């Protein structure tokens, strides 16, 4: 029977990896300045600090911090900015406050709502070409972004609560967002933004797509589909202007027009009539 080898206190075989405490000492020594205290004031100290952190990450003493972000364009490819962190964009869509994913759609819904019939849930406004400047900050997070501020607005134009669980928004044939368990009140809008950190609203449903819409400005299609994949509404466009495209007449029209043709003072109106009114109060 082989004898177990056990190191005596204070000893360590020469090939054993350095302990975490030892590696932390490396960081402390790297941070020490001329006075013997820790300092970050001088440029060389800051560089020394960063180098020490890299050593710790590589050796496993510390985990690298999450990639911080304020918008999705700051994240690596195939990642999305969500609550200040870059997260993988594959296989997940943010749907509601409960964090349900697409696998939950068939398990739960809006118990007090009815499944929409064709025509009850309408695709009313889309923004595919984000305007420049402050007017392009459609999601209201303080940053104009060509991807994050794209949005799709759907509206319940009935007088009953609708269960829109499983309803999807597509870029062409590709699903970009699927609603989790969601109740949509009478004459209420649901807006899905391409990214960012939009503020919650009391009188509308606000969601953020986990995967960028990435609508093409030169042309494409935005599709609203039911839980079974049936197409409930679509807009096919070419050379989209730098403003939203809005159904005309609102909620009941058969064509989409540039937003400024309905309201000269606004380029977008996510969650509202083109003139800024609540859908529940009627659009002018």
TrEMBL record:
Q: Which InterPro entries match?
A: Lamin_tail_dom, Lamin_tail_dom_sf
| Domain LTD, residue spans | 115-231
Q: What is this protein called?
A: Lamin tail domain-containing protein
Entry's Pfam families? LTD (PF00932)
Span list, region Disordered? 1-20
Organism source for this protein?
Persicimonas caeni
């Amino acid at each position: 029977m082989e004898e177990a080898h056990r190191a005596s206190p204070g000893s360590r075989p020469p090939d054993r990896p350095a302990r975490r405490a030892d590696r932390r000492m490396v960081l402390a020594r790297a941070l020490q300045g001329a006075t013997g205290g820790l300092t970050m004031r001088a440029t060389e100290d800051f560089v020394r600090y960063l180098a020490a952190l890299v050593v710790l990450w590589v050796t496993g003493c510390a985990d690298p911090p999450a990639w911080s972000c304020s918008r999705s364009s700051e994240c690596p490819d195939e990642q999305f900015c969500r609550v200040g962190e870059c997260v993988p964009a594959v296989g997940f869509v943010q749907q509601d406050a409960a964090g349900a994913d697409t696998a939950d759609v068939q398990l739960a819904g809006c118990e007090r709502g009815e499944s929409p019939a064709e025509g009850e849930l309408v695709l009313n406004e889309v923004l595919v070409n984000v305007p420049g400047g402050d007017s392009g900050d459609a999601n209201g997070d303080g940053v104009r972004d060509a991807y994050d501020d794209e949005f799709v607005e759907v509206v319940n134009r009935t007088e009953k609560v609708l269960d829109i669980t499983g309803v999807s928004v597509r870029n062409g044939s590709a699903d970009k967002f699927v609603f989790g368990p969601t109740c949509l009140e009478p004459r209420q809008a649901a807006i899905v933004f391409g990214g960012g950190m939009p503020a919650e609203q009391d009188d509308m449903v606000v969601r953020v797509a986990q995967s960028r819409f990435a609508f093409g400005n030169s042309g494409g299609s935005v599709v609203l589909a039911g839980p079974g994949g049936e197409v409930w509404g679509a807009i096919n466009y070419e050379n989209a202007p730098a403003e939203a495209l809005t159904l005309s007449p609102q909620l009941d029209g058969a064509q989409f027009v540039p937003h400024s043709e309905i309201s000269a003072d606004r380029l977008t109106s996510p969650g509202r009539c083109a003139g800024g009114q609540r859908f529940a109060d009627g659009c002018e």
